[in-house]
Specification:
- The chain has three helices and 28 strands.
- It has about 500 residues and is mainly beta.
- The radius of gyration is 24 Å and the shape is globular.
- The longest helix has 12 residues.
Length: about 500
């Protein structure tokens, strides 16, 4: 077995053999081979398993420090076969300034991050972000190979203009289908404000304090060479406390959020089923990057009980389920399904319920074009404060401001024509174009019935970050609303990297 870590810039490509490419390779610390070796499930002398090799390639591509990975056989003069692991590094040290404008709301951020500290695969991020709701200063540390093991650690601290947020997670995840067990211990706390909007205005606010904790152990109990069935048990806790409610403007028919304190404690049984049917694609979501989609079924479920005997404020069964599936109807098309439902049911009926179904479709084959479509339907039942459904710019109606409407039922649809070009600036940035149309409607809070169907059209530029492991795309477009509201702007400028599909 041989591990080859390739530099960020491929200097054998004349387009990348520039002063920027040479300087970038000189400044970048390549991923250490031992980091990659820890992700390999096979050793010299092991039999070849094609499915395991593809699974390992996907796992390596999931590293933020690796842009692409491939494992290929190499036949030696003596007839021996060597597994050559080739990993192309991504540029991970970034001092970034970000700006976005979606739905008429401006946000900016400044950060310093390294997703591959000294080539170790560990990540450290320092970030300041300002948006219309709050200002935050964050420190995030992530280690996928804690002390050289299969354990992972993530720690996040944020100082907010209206409070603070802290989270810590320690776990041993399922890295492969045949991983025998996993462990998760996670805790978080948030001190902030609950905000409720409608018709582009903030109408309610209240201080909130949320704390959560979870302990979970899962075991692989069945499956095959290309599937896994996992069962587990978890202990979960969640507390919510709120301060006095402030009414900022006349709320009209929109009811005030329920600020009753909540305390939940209880056990749950978990189920996870995954089938390995992954296929690799390129340029569907990002640019110049391999993207993996599963064309078979996977699903997750948790069923539990919050009980007064453990200190809950109410007895409440709770459940979470998720389902995913992909289809490739032809060599030039892809269809993806995601469905989920969650909620709890005390004596008064379902609370904090949310059910969602989303379809994403891609069609390519035309020269340098990808057609992308998205359709989502969501339904909420007595959502907790802060979990309301909104309709507006940030949710996908790019020709409108944020928070046009608030309610409990929603549908959204988008269609995009993504035009790719061969314009690559110094091997760093790829330029493309886009035209799109969005539509959606929402059942409004307070018994107001369904809103009008809002729609917009727009277009502009797409820029792909070619040295990012995510193939990140930034939009610079203009969207025009087709259904006007009083005081509605004639157009919205959309800037940023919020790509939903």
């Amino acid at each position: 077995m041989r591990i080859e870590v390739q530099p960020v810039f491929d200097l054998s490509d004349p387009a990348q053999d520039t002063w920027i490419g040479r300087l970038g390779n000189h400044l970048h610390r390549d991923t250490r081979p031992r980091v990659i070796a820890r992700e390999l499930p096979f050793q010299p002398g092991d039999p070849v398993d094609a499915r395991q090799i593809h699974e390992t390639e996907r796992r390596l591509r999931a590293f933020r420090s690796i842009k692409d990975a491939a494992i290929v056989p190499e036949l030696g003069p003596d007839g021996a076969v060597t597994a050559v692991v080739r990993a192309r590094d991504a540029w991970t040290l970034k001092a970034s300034v970000g700006y976005s404008q979606v739905g008429g709301r401006h946000s900016w951020s400044f950060g310093l991050q390294d997703q591959n500290l000294l080539g170790t695969g560990k990540a450290l991020t320092l970030r300041r972000q300002v948006d219309p709701d709050r200002t935050s200063n964050a420190v995030v540390y992530a280690d996928r190979q804690l002390l050289g093991s299969d354990w992972a650690l993530t720690a996040d601290y944020q100082s907010l203009s209206d409070g603070r947020s802290r989270s810590l997670s320690l776990g041993r995840p399922f890295k492969a289908l045949d991983t025998p067990w996993s462990f998760t211990l996670a805790a978080s706390s948030l001190e902030s404000r609950v905000l409720v909007f409608d018709r582009n205005a903030q109408i309610y606010e209240a201080p909130e304090r949320l704390t959560t904790g979870r302990f979970e152990v899962d075991w692989r109990v069945g499956g095959s060479a290309s599937s896994a069935l996992r069962l587990g048990a978890s202990l979960e806790a969640a507390d919510a406390r709120y301060g006095p409610l402030t009414v900022d403007v006349d709320p009209g028919p929109v009811p005030a959020p329920d600020l009753t304190p909540r305390r939940f404690r209880g056990p749950a049984l978990t189920l996870d089923w995954v089938q390995d049917g992954y296929a690799a694609y390129r340029d569907l979501v990002g640019m110049d990057i391999t993207e993996d989609f599963n064309l078979r079924w996977s699903g997750q479920a948790a069923l539990g009980l919050y009980t007064r005997a453990w200190g809950s404020s109410a007895r409440a069964p709770f459940a979470r389920v998720g389902l995913q599936k992909g289809w490739a109807p032809s060599d030039t098309s892809l269809l993806l399904l995601q469905a989920s439902a969650a909620g709890r049911r005390p004596a008064g009926g379902i609370e904090d319920g949310l059910a969602s179904v989303a379809f994403t479709a891609y069609r390519w084959g035309l020269p340098h074009q990808v057609l992308a479509g998205f359709l989502a339907v969501d339904a909420a039942a007595r959502p907790d404060p802060g979990h309301e459904l909104y309709l507006g710019g940030f949710e996908g109606l790019r020709g409108y401001t944020d928070h046009v409407r608030v309610g409990d039922r929603r549908w959204l649809a988008s269609l995009e024509d993504r035009i790719l070009t061969d314009w690559r600036w110094l091997g760093i940035l790829r330029v493309g174009f886009i035209v799109y149309a969005d539509a959606g409607a929402l059942r409004q809070a307070g018994g107001q019935g369904w809103s009008r169907t809002y729609a917009d059209v727009g277009g502009g530029l797409r820029f792909g970050d070619l040295k990012s492991s995510l193939g990140r795309v930034v939009y610079l477009t203009v969207a025009c609303p087709l259904v006007k509201e009083p005081g509605q702007d004639k157009w919205q400028v959309v800037v940023g990297n919020t790509v939903r599909f």
